[in-house]
Each structure stands twice: as C-alpha cells, then as structure tokens.
Amino acid sequence: MKFNQPEGSTPLNPDSQKDLIPALSTQEELNSFEQYNIVSATEWATGNSRMKKKLLTLEGLKQLHKEMFNQTWKWAGKFRTINTNIGVSWDSISSKLKELCDDVAYWIENDIYSLDEIAVRFHYRLVFIHPFPNGNGRHARLAADVFLIHRNLPRLTWGSKSILEKGEVRSSYIKALQAADAGDFEPILKFVHS
Length: 194
Prior knowledge:
The chain has helices at 14-17, 27-46, 51-54, 58-69, 93-109, 115-129, 136-149, 168-181, 186-191. It is mostly helical. The longest helix is centred in the first third of the chain and has 20 residues, at 27-46. The model has no long low-confidence stretch (mean pLDDT 92).
C-alpha cells in the first residue's frame, strides 16, 4: 500500500508499514479503520476514571496510544526506536515525557496556567516529543481532550474540521505549532477554540 501522508506528518517507514494488522489497500481504508479505532479509544478513555491520574504518566500515555491504534498497528503503544523528521531523539523519549508529566503536575498544583492552557501546552509538548512511530498528533489532541473531560471541562474544537486532510485547517494547525516552537502560544490557543 502506498501511504499519502498529510503535510507535516511523520512518514511511515517500510518497517512500520509491515506492522499493519488489517488487510487494507488504500489510504482511505486506513484512515477509516484508524478513525474507528480512535472512536473506541475515546469512549474508553473518557469513561475510565483511572485515566485522570494515569494520563500524566508514561504508562498512561502509552496505554492511550495503544487503545487508539491496537486494532490497526502492532506497534501501538510502543515508543519509536528510530529518529524521525519530527521529535526528540528516540533515546530521550522516556525522559522528555517524564519531564512533561512532572511539568503538567507542577502547573496544576501551582495554578501556573488555566486548565485549558495546560491542556494546550500538554498537547504541544507531546507533539514536539513525538514519542510514537505514527499517530502523535491525534494522540496529543486526544490526550488534551481527555485531560479536560476528566476535569469536567469541554473538549477543544481543534479548528472545528478535520486536521488530518490537506487544506486550510491543517495548514493553520501546523503554523500554530510552529509559532509555539518559537515560544508564541497565542496562535495555538486561538486555533484550539476556532
């Protein structure tokens, strides 16, 4: 199968592609299958009261990714073991995620940011670290939403349209992430409510 990766995504290397579980022949079939898997994971994560505390752990982040892709990819919930075009060096993933989880706990405990902004910064750092072979943006967006839902707050709108497909919404999302790379969180804070 030839994968048509959207702008700004991590290309799937041939070894990762070999770990596709269902027999699919088109990108559209893969997208549909992954989306079905993600909907199931969303129901599981938002209905699981243990995820409120567990989400901010390496185990919880891995488990969320595994639930999102366990019917699609054999590597679901496993950190990448190679460097990619996006993300930290593969051998620092665990330490960077631990640092992120500690930072989020500190922000909550010391009321550094609103819970809404904490969710956005949590999402941004997860995308920046890019711990998994694929699905990092979707994982980070769901993690941010689960963080808010377990605090009785509404999900973010993420541009109100699909971020997965090439177009204005995805382009705006990537530009907002790039602004955050430069320390300007205003564009991503606006985008998540648009």
